[in-house]
Amino acid sequence: MHKFLIHKRGDHVGVATSDIESGEKVIGVFMDDDSTIEVVAKGAIPLGHKIAITDLAKDGHVLEYGLPIGYAPEGFTLGDYVHTHNIRTLRW
């Protein structure tokens, strides 16, 4: 059973559909083609929050819905909890 959804192939993050525990191996489903990905969570990820499904370089733009939703000042790696502590807006 999946524990997160990815809106579009090419996105950097998925959204938890239930709480994910640190160290838990979880399956995500790409909504545009129903394919799956398996990721080990590096931290606890609450329902509705984001999990990294790929590595992203320092200052890289974070994609969700196929669009940039912010940037990662320090980057992140596969399985990281992605939230306001490690992404920033592109608006200012």
Automatic annotation (TrEMBL):
GO molecular function, one term: hydrolase activity
First and last residue of the signal peptide: none
Family annotation (InterPro entries): SAF, SAF_UxaA/GarD
CDD domains: SAF_AH_GD (cd11613)
Stored Gene3D superfamilies: 2.30.130.110
SMART domains listed in its UniProt record: SAF
Residue ranges occupied by any SAF domain in the UniProt entry: 11-88
Alphabetic keyword roster: Hydrolase, Lyase
The keyword Lyase belongs to this UniProt entry's keyword annotation: yes
Name of this chain's protein: UxaA family hydrolase
Organism for this UniProt entry: Cohnella hongkongensis
